[in-house]
Amino acid sequence: MQFDFSSSSGTKPILKYNPYSWTKVANVIFLDAPVGTGFSYATTDTAYNVSDTSSAAQTYEFLRKWLVSHPSFLANPLYITGDSYSGVVIPIIVKNIQDGIEAGHQPQMNLVGYTLGNPVTCDEKDMSFRIPYANKMALVSDELYETTKTDCNGDFQNVDPTNGACLTDLEMVSLCLEKIFLAQVLEPSCNLISPNHTRLKWSRSILEEDTVNIVSMPHQSRPWCRPANYIYSYIWANDEKVQEALGIRTGTKQEWNRCNHTLSYTKDVLNAVVYHEYLSEKTLRALVYSGDHDLAIPYVATLDWIRSLNLTLEGSWSPWFVEGQIAGYSILYSKNSKYDLTFTTIKGGGHTAPEYKPKQCLAMVDRWFSYYPL
Question: Which UniProt keywords apply (predicted)?
């Protein structure tokens, strides 16, 4: 199901059938993680203290328990999937599962691969590609880009505070980008985005919206902005009848928020590439996709870490089609005839791609799960 935005009012969200749900091609477990997100909760205060690695360990433990309770799914091919910041945690989860398989842990999982969409991998490197991407998208001129690259010695993140020329260049870049919606550069910029988004040290909070602003959105006169639609998820998820239908335990959550800013979360993995290096030695499949209009985690940043894995290139950069139209461009890599990684762009997609291009993303995973070329 999905929200019918055209039929919904500010106080009554209406649902409609989603013809592009991934549940059409797979059995899907939707997991609120880390603990404290969504409707998930802990019974002690200390249990809310989680990190990248501990959250991954908890997810692995959950999967083991779930498969014990649902043994009919044990033979099914298992894929671990996630978007955005899951790009850090998913590879850790996959490694935990792979290690458990090799150690003989029960139940034995039929791990086949993983998918990542617009994935965060290394904050610093991901962000360093925003300016090159902005140049590719004609948001920053060639002249300004080349001058900034020279004056900043190619490092747009760790800037010497005494380098006046670099700082001036970065201010000019910021002026070019301050009204750009980072999640999809062609859509209107919204006040739901962090007010600090004009600085080059952008934080992950650019993808998060403020609860108070969300609730007040319908009372403000402004151009349509995609995050304004998030008000419907807030109203719907906090409806008592909805929570009762979902089986939410009474009293476990005072309020559902799309983004929980109160989490006690430690980012203890600064670069997830090492996990991909490990996984590339195993018999696994990987699908990595990027909306090509995402400035938050640009596709060029994702391609950079993929290329750092020193995989073998299998073919050329090629378009793929949905209903006769180009849906994106893909390329295949492999290693030791055991591991293969497909990277693809989603044409016109933002952060994250399935929200913007659901039909194309369903076709993508349907073909990939079936071992068909995109």
Answer: Carboxypeptidase, Glycoprotein, Hydrolase, Protease, Signal
pLDDT in tens, 193-236: 333 333 334 333 433 444 434 333 344 445 677 776 788 899 99
Per-residue pLDDT tens over the stretch 63-72:
999 999 999 9
What's the whole-model pTM score?
Answer: 0.90
Q: Which residues 6+ apart lie within 8 Å of 215 measured at CB?
A: 231, 234
Q: Please say if 84 is a catalytic residue.
A: yes
- The answer to whether 72 is a known catalytic residue is no
CA–CA separation, 205 vs 195, rounded Å? Answer: 10
Structure tokens at 25: 């091609």
Task: Report whether 294 contacts 303 (CB < 8 A).
Answer: no
Give dist(CA 61, CA 72) in Å, integer: 18
Which domains, from first to last, does the chain contain?
2-124+267-369 (3.40.50.1820), 127-257 (no CATH)
First-to-last C-alpha distance (Å) of the chain: 26
Locate 355 and state its tokens.
């929200």
Spatial distance between the Cα atoms of 255 and 142, rounded to a whole number of angstroms: 47
* Residue from 8, 55, 84, 290 carrying the catalytic annotation: 84
